[in-house]
UniProtKB/TrEMBL annotation:
Tree of life domain: Bacteria
UniProt xrefs under CDD domains: AdoMet_MTases
Family matches, as InterPro entries: Glyco_hydro_b, SAM-dep_methyl-trfase, SAM-dependent_MTases_sf
Protein's GO biological process: methylation
GO molecular function: methyltransferase activity
Organism in which the protein naturally occurs: Candidatus Faeciplasma pullistercoris
Protein name, as recorded: Class I SAM-dependent methyltransferase
Annotated S-adenosylmethionine-dependent methyltransferase domain residues: 61-200
Ribonucleoprotein listed as a keyword: no
Pfam families named in the record: Methyltrans_SAM (PF10672)
Keywords (A to Z) from UniProt: Methyltransferase, S-adenosyl-L-methionine, Transferase
């Protein structure tokens, strides 16, 4: 497992009984996590949390604030800065485990020795977009949520990256890719971070396991003749690293050569010294041993 263990502003303090206790820039939050099926003793730190998210039987949930918190605050990872806001769906606007992938992409782009044009799909609040832009790439950031794209732009401004070559696109990712193919637009790298489940603007159901193969196959239509990487994330336990590796291998390797690596990614838990799984990543590149 690859660990996001270089954070200074984020800490995963403990995890027990379906919940995790985190520190986001000193603000302590308790949030649900379905991976946490063990029940270890909860110490005093849990009682000192600033806010706790409670799930509702009807879906969603709400925050219980133990103290008044700012509407948003900033955490940083290396040169990148992010606005953190507790949302009604338990999220904070950032997935800290993705820092391992930001570091990976940073190295690939900086070592490419040529200009790199990146397509970031389901780009959320822009962690990967900012990492690639800071490394010197041009980025096309695509997300169907106008609010998330605006949040990403705020993060770019916080990080001093507003003047970097980033296209901010509010659109359905699949439809955008179809249009880019018709336009003849090409990219040297693709980041695909799709949700496990969702509904489209017309009510159509998106389920990752049912849709991901065709989406990867379609998106290969925008790759340049000499692509640098294709990175695929998954947060669902129904899509293992091996399955994602197989998908990238059968679609990309026959055409471009290269290799595929895949692994779980996770966050170190201070209380136990163990690592909490937080999803999986598969990446195709022309190089070897990049996921070590």
């Amino acid at each position: 497992m690859r660990k996001a263990d270089k954070w200074k502003d984020y800490r995963l303090i403990d995890a027990s009984d379906g919940e995790k206790l985190e520190s986001w820039g000193g603000v302590r939050l308790v949030r649900p996590d379905p991976q946490v099926i063990w029940k270890t003793p909860k110490g005093q730190g849990w009682k000192n949390a600033d806010a706790v998210y409670h799930r509702s039987q009807r879906g969603g949930g709400e925050w219980e604030y133990k103290k008044k918190l700012p509407e948003s605050w900033t955490v940083s990872y290396r040169e990148l800065s992010f606005n953190i806001r507790p949302t009604g769906f338990k999220h904070t606007g950032l997935f800290p485990e993705q820092a391992v992938n930001w570091d990976l992409m940073d190295g690939l782009i900086k070592n490419a020795g040529r200009p790199i044009n990146v397509l970031n799909m389901f780009a959320y609040t822009g962690g990967a977009t900012l990492a690639c832009a800071a490394a010197g790439a041009s980025v096309c950031h695509v997300d169907a949520s106008k609010g998330m794209v605006q949040w990403a732009r705020e993060n770019a401004a916080k990080s001093g990256l507003s003047d970097k070559p980033v296209r901010w696109i509010v659109d359905d990712c699949e439809k955008f890719v179809e249009r880019e193919i018709r336009r003849g637009k090409k990219y040297d790298a693709v980041i695909m971070d799709p949700p496990s489940y969702g509904r489209g603007p017309s009510g159509e159901v998106w389920k990752l396991e049912d849709s991901i193969y065709e989406l990867v196959r379609l998106t290969c239509g925008v790759l340049s003749d000499n692509p640098l990487f294709f990175l695929l994330n998954s947060y669902t336990t129904g899509l293992s690293p091996s399955v994602m590796s197989y998908i990238l291998g059968i679609i990309l390797t026959p055409r471009f050569g290269g290799t595929v690596s895949a692994d779980e990614i996770g966050l170190p838990v201070e209380a136990s010294g163990l690592v909490l799984p937080a999803g999986s990543t598969a990446v195709w590149t022309k190089s070897n041993n990049l996921m070590g």
